[in-house]
């Protein structure tokens, strides 16, 4: 039931690892890159709770509850992912990113809810960790695709304003994997009908129409569990940090470590491929870390809060070390530490939250919870990253990695706010 996340992560990894490269190729200044990302989190702010609300109130004897959303999101994501590297102007690339991110979210949030739908509370840590394991595989493979295409003979340079063929082929492969993996989950996963069909139909009939649905979402936001608010602080710092990485890893590392800034040069494009490979390392490490967590969570009770705290601080140290390394191979170590944080971010908050949410509202609350993912990205895109890294650390773009590390350490310490034992202990 989680196999579709392989494809979703292909989309996210290619988006996170190479959209800034596409923006730079099309002439974007480094300080403008975060703003070009803003449409994606803005759309997520609206799409995620609405899709969650609708999926909670959807049921079809043949197509199920969550699977119709998987399919719609897969079709739209595939189209956007394939055409993104063919953009000939910045506004086209930003638009492709907007459609891609919104479409992936249509599929992703119902996937989170599906795990909570089908597993009892005692197995949810295990379930979300297995999901993270699949995400790690997708991140590593997708992040290495441009390098692999170059190795197989695809051109890694192009005329000014044109994305190299190696990136175009990588995005095409990613689009294929995204669609087929989600389709596999749709065809092989059975969903359970509502326990009380009559009560389900009654509630659905009372919440028809846009205004009624919007009002219900606002009511759920006002009544969100205390644990969700506490986790929201952790999520804010965590996703601000990762948005900083996705926006600035390529310009920061290619210029600071490889000394390459000319986007038409082989040196820059080879360095950008290498950055993708290093980003793949955090996916690979997250996979192994998730595998260990899956083994542990299936056998003993774990303290989710302390585990998440340590994992996030490890990732923060990894980001900070990027500034100080002297050899390129050390980037694998840095992003390996980031991978520990990434594995935890994709599993522990959802496991902590799921035990505090009514099952019939799982979809809408998973969507609302993701507001704490998109809000920090919006703040970062509207100038938060540029303002903070220059104010605290200085003008050099590599200082964005120092900012990301500091924020991730703050995210780890914020776990101390969580006091509900039902959330923190498996």
TrEMBL record:
Domain of life (superkingdom): Bacteria
Transmembrane feature ranges: 35-55, 67-84, 90-108, 128-149, 169-187, 236-258, 278-297, 306-324, 330-352, 364-385, 397-418
PANTHER family: SOLUTE CARRIER FAMILY 45 MEMBER 3 ISOFORM X1 (PTHR19432:SF35), SUGAR TRANSPORTER (PTHR19432)
The protein's name in its UniProt record: MFS transporter
Keywords in alphabetical order: Membrane, Transmembrane, Transmembrane helix, Transport
Domain Major facilitator superfamily (MFS) profile span(s) in chain numbering: 227-426
Pfam families cross-referenced by the UniProt entry: MFS_1 (PF07690)
Primary subcellular site in the record, as a coarse category: membrane
Localization terms from the record: Membrane
Membrane topology classification: Multi-pass membrane protein
């Amino acid at each position: 039931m989680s196999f579709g996340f392989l494809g979703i992560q292909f989309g996210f990894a290619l988006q996170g690892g190479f959209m800034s490269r596409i923006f730079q190729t099309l002439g974007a200044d480094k300080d403008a890159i975060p703003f070009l990302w803003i449409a994606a989190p803005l759309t997520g702010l609206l799409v995620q709770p609405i899709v969650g609300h609708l999926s909670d109130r959807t049921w079809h004897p043949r197509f199920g509850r969550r699977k119709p959303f998987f399919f719609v999101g897969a079709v739209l994501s595939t189209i956007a992912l394939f055409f993104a590297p063919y953009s000939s102007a910045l506004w086209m690339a930003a638009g492709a990113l907007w459609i891609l991110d919104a479409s992936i979210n249509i599929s992703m949030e119902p996937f989170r809810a599906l795990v909570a739908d089908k597993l009892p509370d005692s197995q949810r840590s295990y379930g979300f960790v297995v999901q993270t394991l699949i995400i790690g595989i997708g991140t590593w493979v997708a992040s290495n695709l441009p390098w692999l295409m170059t190795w197989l003979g695809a051109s890694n340079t192009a005329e000014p304003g044109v994305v190299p063929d190696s990136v175009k082929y990588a995005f095409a492969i990613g689009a294929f994997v995204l669609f087929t993996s989600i389709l596999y989950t749709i065809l092989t996963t059975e969903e359970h009908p509502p326990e009380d069909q009559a009560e389900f139909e009654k509630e659905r009939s009372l919440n028809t129409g846009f205004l009624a649905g919007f009002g219900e979402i606002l009511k759920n936001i006002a009544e969100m569990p205390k644990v969700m608010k506490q986790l929201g602080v952790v999520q804010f710092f965590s996703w601000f940090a990762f948005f900083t990485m996705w926006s600035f890893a390529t310009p920061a590392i290619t210029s600071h470590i490889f000394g390459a800034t000319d986007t038409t040069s082989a040196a820059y494009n080879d360095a950008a491929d290498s950055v993708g490979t290093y980003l793949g390392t955090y996916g690979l490490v997250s996979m192994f870390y998730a595998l260990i967590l899956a083994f542990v969570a299936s056998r003993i009770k774990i303290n989710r809060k302390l585990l998440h705290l340590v994992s996030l601080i490890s990732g923060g140290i990894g980001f900070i070390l990027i500034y100080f390394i002297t050899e390129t191979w050390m980037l694998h170590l840095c992003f390996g530490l980031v991978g520990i944080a990434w594995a935890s971010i994709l599993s522990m908050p959802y496991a902590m939250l799921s035990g505090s949410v009514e099952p019939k509202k799982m979809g809408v609350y998973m969507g609302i919870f993701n507001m704490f993912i998109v809000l920090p990205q919006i703040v970062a895109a509207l100038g938060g990253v540029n303002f903070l890294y220059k104010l605290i650390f200085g003008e050099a773009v590599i200082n964005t990695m120092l900012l990301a590390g500091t924020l991730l350490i703050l995210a780890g310490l914020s776990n101390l706010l969580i006091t509900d034992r039902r959330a923190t202990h498996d």
